[in-house]
Design brief:
Strand content: 15-25%
Radius of gyration: 16 Å
CATH topology: Rossmann fold
Shape: globular
Number of strands: 7
Number of helices: 6
Number of domains: 1
Largest sheet: 7 strands, mixed
């Protein structure tokens, strides 16, 4: 997996810390689905890390909505720490125990990320270059969460499953956007949605 993504050295070490910490914490709190634990590198790490190549080098601010166990935001913070030190990653998670987990991985791995222990709606808006999310909400609602942080050049990278076309159809009633679909490298039924120029329809 690491070779497929061109990862090496400290990048791999950081991901190993994430996985080892998650495996320890999973015995106390449910961070990921128990059935996916045995396949964590493909189902969670690879699924998240594939977004790395879609982040422009000019990006400086990344916002991850509903970070949960750190997928994809914490994975991207670990990898971005070594590739783009200027990239600032912001993780939004309302669950206090999951926030404690995120903080432990950040401390142990030495990556740079800021945690917001609150609901997305409570966040004070700021300018972003990248907005990411995975298993957070249906697309129409997800865009509503992201809206205060979107600018003309913001790129949204959303990991979606088999219902992606239905979600796109529903969301296009209220939203305008440029859409690129990319087949997931971790799941043949998964899709990476690359959305640009997102704005609410005047009549939406």
């Amino acid at each position: 997996m690491c070779a497929k993504l061109g990862l090496a050295g400290e990048e791999i070490r950081g991901l190993e810390i994430l996985v080892a910490t998650l495996e320890r914490w999973q015995t106390r709190i449910k961070l990921i689905g128990t059935a996916t634990l045995a396949d964590i590198w493909r189902r969670h790490v690879l699924d998240s890390a594939q977004l790395l190549s879609l982040i422009p080098e000019r990006a400086r601010v990344l916002l991850d909505l509903g970070s949960g166990a750190g997928f994809p935001g914490l994975v991207l913070a670990i990898l971005g720490h070594h590739r783009w030190p200027e990239l600032r990653v912001h993780l939004v998670e309302s669950n206090a125990r999951k926030c404690a987990f995120l903080a432990e991985v950040i401390r142990a791995s030495g990556c740079d990320a800021e945690i917001y222990k609150c609901r997305i709606e409570a966040m004070r808006p700021f300018a972003t270059d990248i907005v990411t999310a995975r298993a957070c909400a249906p697309l129409d609602r997800l865009l509503g969460h992201a809206e205060p942080f979107l600018g003309p050049g913001t790129r949204c990278l959303f990991l979606k499953g088999r219902n992606v076309e239905r979600e796109l159809t529903n969301s296009q009633e209220s939203w305008k956007m440029g859409i690129t679909r990319k087949t997931s490298v971790s799941d043949p039924e998964g899709v990476v949605l690359i959305l640009e120029g997102v704005s609410r329809r005047d009549d939406g």
